[in-house]
Design a protein that fits this description.
- This protein has 190 residues and is mainly alpha-helical.
- The chain has one domain: Four Helix Bundle (Hemerythrin (Met), subunit A), CATH 1.20.120.1630.
- The chain has a two-stranded antiparallel ribbon with strand order 1-2.
- The protein is elongated, with a radius of gyration of 18 Å.
- It starts with a helix and ends in a 9-residue tail after the last helix.
Length: 190
Amino acid sequence: MPWLQWTLLPIVWVCWVIYWLSGRRRLKPVERQESRRERLSHIIPMALAILLFDIHLPRSSLLSGTFLPHRLLTYWLGFGGTVLGLLFTVYARRYLGGNWSGTVTLKRDHTLTREGPYRWVRHPIYTGLILAFLGSAVAVSTWQTLLACAIVLVTLIVKLRREERWMEERFGAAYVDYRSHTWALVPWIY
């Protein structure tokens, strides 16, 4: 693959991280947040998943093999999935506004968001991240990147379950009703 293609994927992720971190100034004050141990339970696996995208294993390693052929079409399909996933996270975060947090948190005057992508899924940021990681895995096409996607998926499901307990405690019947009319991550699947 040409150098430019392999450079574009990391550039898109870096731009997303810069955007993601820049929005922290406009957040509501924290009322309740998960413990350090709980935070590490999703931060460490996510860091491992990111590392799996970055490290180069020996060619003899089973995980360094490819699950799709390295073709231009494969790369661009994966790249497109990555961009769509990251844009979806941005779209979802804009609807959360000051309620957003990178960890499981309840904010002062926290509101239940049911507009925008939250009409269809309760955790659209996680949905977008899963799509972005999967897109990147397709673009790179190694088994280690597919393993990274599995780690991301399991980590986000564990995190969303904690988040859902907190939301139900906060919003009670309103959240139970919301949960009965939306999917957790992917419409018609989960």
